[in-house]
Amino acid sequence: MQSNALSASAATVGRRNLIGLSTKELEAFFRDLGEKPFRARQLLAWVYRRHAVDFDGMTDISLSLRQRLAQIATLELPTVVADRCSADGTRKWLVDIGGGQAVECVYIPEPNRATLCISSQAGCAMDCSFCATGQQGFNRNLDAAEILGQVLLAQRALGPDVALTNIVFMGMGEPLANYRNVIPVVSLLTDDYAFGLSRRRVTISTAGLVPQIRKLSEDCNVALAVSLHAANDQLRDQLVPINRRHPIAELLEACWHYAQCLASRQITFEYAMLRDVNDSIADARALARLLRDRPAKVNLIPFNPFPGTRYACSSADVMDAFCTELWNRGVVATIRRTRGEDIAAACGQLAGQIRDRTISRLGSKHSRAAHS
Ligand code: SAH
Question: Which one of the listed residues 27, 76, 104, 174 is annotated catalytic?
Fold first, then answer.
């Protein structure tokens, strides 16, 4: 695998990778070649709808232009270094992003949906105490080609019989901390000439970056999931350290504003069930007080353990009682079925291979959390 990756990049040195370029950027690219801007639309359709792997087969583009493109441009995807299938049909790819690092993306088949969970950063700086990715530290943002490359390589691996119906930014990283690269990816996912998914089928999940949630409502109205995990600031400060900067009241205000822009759509609140930490009936009542009569639904996530964690998952009975309490108090809630646990592909278990750059700069992990 390593030598393939090296030879692929050696062969493409100096050529421009067209994966991840926005419609505008592609139009400018073709204009610079003396071509009409509509070539951009043709290329988008070939890459994202017909899954072309090179320029050869793009038959509505003249042979001379195809040959020129092959000389100056590429359609390069990141390299897959591992591909694992779970007994339940979940499939996980480890994707090389260079510098000895790799990120993960996960395919989750369901009867009516084919969801891909993608990563937006190498590691994560949010430092949530119950998340495997957060415990590894942070290295860098992925660029648009690396994020979208995950979708294309999964689609290629799954073959023409599987059409991805939903994309969720719930893999490694905090998508709203990589706003600059995530927004162009969302545009291509929802552009009719490119992937053409409906906005409600693309979900951004965030630990709670309030300014970016506000900006998102102006830039793109995709579905929003918010990792709440606690109904009071004291506990949320411990579980999701970004809460120290943007406490619950401020976060929820931004959420209700976002929901207004969504025209009757709800915000999903994710809540990992941590035994004896946030799973009491009093916690459920406090959560219901925050969310009742609001455009909200709760997704209870059974905590997925990972090596070295101090947390355990609540029992099934406790999760059921918590869920029932929410319903009784007028809040819609579901318990997420855990998928891909046998291949460490479940929520919060994605780890990839990350070289943490933050510990050496800021001292201990603890001080990083305090600075975040
Ligand atoms: N940074 C984004 C995406 C993170 S992963 C965010 O914070 O929303 C998607 C979801 O999995 C988040 O709600 C996250 O809090 C949750 N999660 C993280 N670790 C988990 C674990 N070990 N068990 C269950 N859920 C977890």
Answer: 104
207 touches ligand 1 (CB under 6 Å): yes
Q: Which of 120, 205, 216, 238 to mutate to test the pocket of ligand 1 (most atoms within 8 A of CB)?
A: 205
Cβ atoms 195, 48 nearer than 8 A: yes
Tens of pLDDT, residue by residue, the chain (372 residues): 334 444 445 456 689 999 999 999 999 999 999 999 999 999 999 999 998 999 999 999 999 999 999 999 999 999 999 999 999 999 999 999 998 899 999 999 999 999 999 999 999 999 999 998 888 899 999 999 999 999 999 999 999 899 999 999 999 999 999 999 999 999 999 999 999 999 999 999 999 999 999 999 888 889 999 999 999 999 999 999 999 999 999 999 999 999 998 765 799 999 999 999 999 999 999 999 999 999 999 999 999 988 899 999 999 999 999 999 999 999 999 999 878 878 877 766 676 777 787 653 333 343 333 322
Q: Cα–Cα distance between 190 and 104 in angstroms, integer? A: 22
- How far, in Å, CA of 107 to CA of 345, rounded? 9
The three-state DSSP-derived secondary structure of 215-256 is HHHHHCCCEEEEECCCCCHHHHHHHCHHHHCCCHHHHHHHHH
What residues pair up with 285 in beta bridges, in sequence order?
none
> Is residue 105 annotated as a catalytic residue, yes or no?
no
Q: Which helix (H) or strand (E) holds 49?
A: none
Ligand 1 atom 3: the closest Cα is on which residue?
A: 170
CB 346 within 8 A of CB 339: yes
∠ CA(134), CA(170), CA(226), 5° rounding? 85
| Neighbouring C-beta atoms of residue 111, cutoff 10 Å | 4
CA-angle at 62, arms to 60 and 66, nearest 5° = 100
Residue 65: DSSP 8-state: H
User: Of all atoms in ligand 1, which is nearest to the CA of residue 304?
Assistant: 23
Check if the beta carbon of residue 76 is closer than 8 Å to that of residue 65. no
Greatest CA span in the chain, whole angstroms? 69
Question: Which ligand 1 atom is nearest residue 309's CA?
Answer: 22
Contacts with 155 (C-beta within 8 Å, 6 or more apart), sequence order: 51, 162, 164
Q: Is 347 marked active-site? A: yes
* Contact predicate 79/1, CB 8 Å: yes
